[in-house]
Amino acid sequence: MNITEANRQCLDKIQASTAVWSDIRPAHEVISGMTDYTVLHAGPPLTWEQMCGPMRGAITGACIYEGWATSPDEVDRLASGGKLVFDSSHHRHAIGPMSGIITPTMEVNVVRNEPFGIETYSTLYMGIGKVLRHGAFDDEVMTKLRWMNQELAPLLKAALQAAGGIDIKSIVAQSLQMGDELHNRNKASNALLLNSLVQHLIEVGTKEEAIRAIDFIDKAGHFILNVVMAGSKGMLDAGSGIDGSTIVTAIARNGYEAGIRVSGLGDRWFTAPAPPIDGVYFPGFGPEDANPDLGDSAITETIGLGSFSMAGAPAVVEYIGGTAQFAVETSLKMYEITVDEHQTYKLPPLNFRGAPLGIDIRRVVETGITPVINTGIACKRPGVGQIGAGLTAIPLQCFTAALEAFAQQST
Amino acid sequence: MFETTTIVTASYFDSVVLMRVASQLKKRDGITEVAMFMGTEGNHELLDQVGLATAESKHAGPQDLIIIVRADTQALAEQTSTEAAAMLSAKRETDQSELSYRPRMLDRALGFLPDASLAAISIPGAYAARETQNCLAHDLNVFLFSDNVALDDEARLKKIALDKGLLLMGPDCGTAYLNGVGLGFTNVVRRGRIGCVAAAGTGLQAVVCRADHRGEGISHGIGVGGRDLSGEVGGLMTSYALSLLDQDPATEVIILISKPPHPEVARSLEQTCRQLATPVITCFQGTTLDSDAFIQSATLDEAADRAVCLLGNTPFVPRNFTDIARIKQLLDHQQSTAAGRRIIGLFTGGTLAKEAYLLLRPLLGTVSADLDQAGSHCLVDLGDDRYTVGKPHPMIAPENRTEVLLELATAGRLDDCGALLFDLVLGHGSHADPASELAAGLAELRSRHGLTIPAIVSLIGTEGDPQSLVEQQRVLNEAGATVFLINSEAARYAALLVVPDCRQALMEVRP
Predict the structure, then answer these.
(1) CATH number assigned to the domain comprising residue A193
(2) How far is A119 from chain B (nearest CA, A)?
(3) A124/A163 same-domain check
(4) Are residues A304 and A208 in the same domain?
(5) A306 occurs within a structural domain
């Protein structure tokens, strides 16, 4: 099979994929190998020593939450002593924004790609500011985490059952036409998700529980992001492992390195040092506070959302400091490195052209254009949270290394 | 009447889009009704009310698209339903007209300009062959400005182009005119009856400017690159360009400018020319072939003049100077002691340098093309690769020539120079004011080095050029330079200065 055919096969599967948010389950029940002391994280695999502040903070919080430790020192001993088993979430159909930490008892979203029988998982979105994924683990964070896992998760699980699952692909398609790009801007999608949930939350919970849940999802703003990320991953996982395909199936960063995976190159990662982010900062913060690029949320760009769909989200450019024209040009630039257009995700300002889909490592290397990622900026000090937002480009090195490996494999 | 119901699961389409597609399809013959709705509760009610609901449609969920078609035949209903789905998922290109975005990949660029028929390639030669092949594969004619393309690549690519009936102009093609559109370094000339095939660089520019001065114009000017008539390439593009011009109703005469062709290629070129209905005037720089298949000219201006005479049905009279009285007057007023000294020519155009060299060598004896050759006459093409490494071409950056001139002066190597010969090429792509740059250089020669060497300029351009021929001429005259609008005349005039013995021969009006 030649490359074009292999890529076609890969993209046909991605295009035919669905994403239905069907359940909430404890991680250890659904994610493979989630034994005690297993810690999944964002991005390519890395060691405790290589982990950045926010990721270490998040792991500390997670260990305390699991009851494996009571203090940061204890967590450090567990980690340094090899007691904690780290792995990339990507190796287990799971995904998470920023640190993306998942431990066994955390409740996770279950999103199904029905035609391919693939299930993917992500933790529940915790809101903005002081949150676990940014490495915060004080009492307030712990209390919120417990509430989410003990009250919100069962309620959502019941609501999802009552709703018979919620079609995320359809919400994404609709909200793209309402000015979201589904990475940094989720105004429409989060509201649409809440619309689908409200009736069922009221059905299955007490009035107070329902109000708390509705209020939380509304205020969190990006609650849907984690669900969309899991859905996007499920679609891309369907296109993974196609022999001879040069299509990128994952882009992820761990605060130490950025990495990509390619359909025809198995489970290998091709990495480069995590790039800095060019962006705007919240008052009181600057580039010196910023952590290098972090998190699995670039999966949205990989499926054609985020910066790839920025043409359809002119409002997002203010957030990252640009013009509406810039938004359009960013999408146009991404068409240069992709080989397909999404059949369901359409961009109104581009005459309803399908979103750029299917990053081809050959086109990236040939043009020198690397995928642009719309992303939040994390503070490098654990627990501070998001301090800005901006654009980052995945280093070309990842793509040249992948292409060289591909060439070697093909000969 | 027949009816079909199709459910497209897990999809989302805006109702406006659905209504537009449905109404388009409903207008067709044999179609009674086309209903396209997402399966929301409200839409199910609507379908019930209007009596369109079917057994299958009732099962559609809010994320499913329902397509119901009623038509005269079952086949038509099914076909329309399939088409409706296809129309919804049809790929659409962005309307780019108002955007400033410049695409990077060829396939994306073609998305912006689907009707494009020509690609201009100007990238380092090592990569040019690959891009050229890619453009040819997309059925694009190619203007290949890049040089340093391997000869075997050139031959291979030209074969591909020819098989597809495409032009591959180049490599190292600096100028072309197609349907009145100039590519690369071009002078503003009128359109007309003369078709040109050339390497193509300053030779083509000199010919079109001369024709323009004589009141004639250019139909097309097709560049083929300097190696097209080599044995390896075999004149593939030259022959094709000649046949295209022959078929062109606007072209009444063809001028072919080239280096001497390879003997075998010359023979096939003769064959080609004999089959053409259009007369061909050639200028094979440095050779005369024993053939009557074409009308041969020794110089670029002669080729242009012969074409003009042919079109005007007037006899061509060969002459060394168009205005002999002016030459006499110039020589009378010439007070320098140029005789016996050497000529140093600093050219920006390769073909112009070559022409001067071919004219002067019989008159001067040894003429070097190398600047480092002390003592002898010297005509240098500063646009040659060895002078342009890491620098822009001197037609774009004439200060590079001034620099060379002043370095020569500083080294005392102009002390035995009796005449400085320059070319100055105007037009799009060239420097905005090359005359002033040259004038400043000449002024510095006088003020700093005390040198008042006669400066002779071959000025190639038209009044329509952005620099304005008249204005550039004025600047040069004020700088004390003697200006010729014909390259061969500038060279001959330089010879008159340094070799007074040749005056009689050159100034005699030939029979």
Answers:
(1) 3.90.1710.10
(2) 17
(3) yes
(4) no
(5) yes
B470 and A CB contact within 8 Å? no
Question: DSSP label at A149?
Answer: I
3-state secondary structure B115-150: CCCEEEECCCHHHHHHHHHHHHHCCCEEEECCCCCC
Contact B104 A354 (CB under 8 A): no
CA A225 to CA A236: how far, in whole Å?
Answer: 16
CB within 8 Å: B17 and A329: no
In A, which residues are within 8 Å of B111 by CB distance? 335
Residues 6 through 25 of chain B touching chain A, CB cutoff 8 Å? 10-12, 14, 17
User: B217 by DSSP, 3-state: which?
Assistant: coil
Interface of B with A in 97-136 (CB under 8 A): 99-101, 103-105, 108, 111
Is this prediction's pTM over 0.95?
no
Contact B199, B293 (CB under 8 A): no
Q: Is position A234 within any domain?
A: no
Domains assigned to chain B: 2-98 (3.30.1360.30), 106-312 (3.40.50.261), 324-506 (3.40.50.261)
Tell me if B105 and A367 make a contact (CB, 8 A cut-off).
yes
Beta carbons of B250 and B241 less than 8 angstroms apart:
no
Residues of A in contact with B105 (CB under 8 A): 336, 363, 366-367
Q: Which domain holds residue A73?
A: 16-229
Whether residue A164 is found in the same domain as residue A59: yes
Flag whether pLDDT at B293 surpasses 80: yes
Q: Which residues of A touch B (CB under 8 A)?
A: 18, 167, 169-170, 173-174, 177, 325, 328-329, 332-333, 335-336, 341, 343-344, 350-354, 363, 366-367, 369
For chain B, helix (H) and strand (E) counts, in that order, are 18, 19
Question: A370 and A303, same structural domain?
Answer: yes
Taking CA B417 as the corner, what is the angle to CA B415 and CA B420, rounded to the nearest 5 degrees?
130
Domain count, chain A: 2
Residues A271 and A381 in one domain: yes
The mean pLDDT of A383-391, rounded to a whole number, is 83
Say yes or no: A165 and A222 in one domain. Answer: yes
- Buried/exposed code over A114-132 (b: 16+ C-beta within 10 A; e: otherwise): bebebbbbbbbbbbeebbb
Interface test with B, best of A15, A199, A352 (most B CBs within 10 A): A352
Residue A4 counted as domain residue = no
Express each pLDDT in A154-208 by its tens digit: 999 999 999 999 999 999 999 999 999 999 999 999 999 999 999 999 999 999 9
B interface test, pick of A174, A176, A328, A332 with most B CB neighbours within 10 Å: A332
- Collapsed DSSP state (helix, strand, coil) of residue A207: helix
| A225 plus A250 within the same structural domain | no
Residues contacting B75, CB < 8 A, separation 6+: none
**Could you give the ipTM of this predicted complex?**
0.76
Q: What is the CATH number of the domain that holds A355?
A: 3.90.1700.10
Query: Cβ contacts (< 8 Å) between A310 and chain B: which residues?
Result: none
Look at residue A402 and tell me if it is in a domain. Answer: yes
Residue where one domain finishes, among candidates A172, A199, A229: A229
A354/B99 touch (CB, cutoff 8 Å), yes or no: no
Say if CB B418 and CB B442 are below 8 A apart. no
Nearest Cα residue in chain A from B100: A329
What does DSSP say about strands A118-123 and A372-378: parallel, antiparallel, or unpaired? unpaired
pLDDT digit string, tens, across residues B476-498: 999 999 999 999 999 999 999 99
Of the listed ranges A143-152, B4-13, B242-251, B273-282, the least confidently predicted one is B4-13
Return the number of other C-beta atoms located less than 10 Å from residue B12's C-beta: 22
Q: Where among A178, A198, A229 does a domain terminate?
A: A229
Does A351 sit within 8 Å of B95, measured CB to CB? yes
Per-residue pLDDT averaged across B275-297, rounded? 95
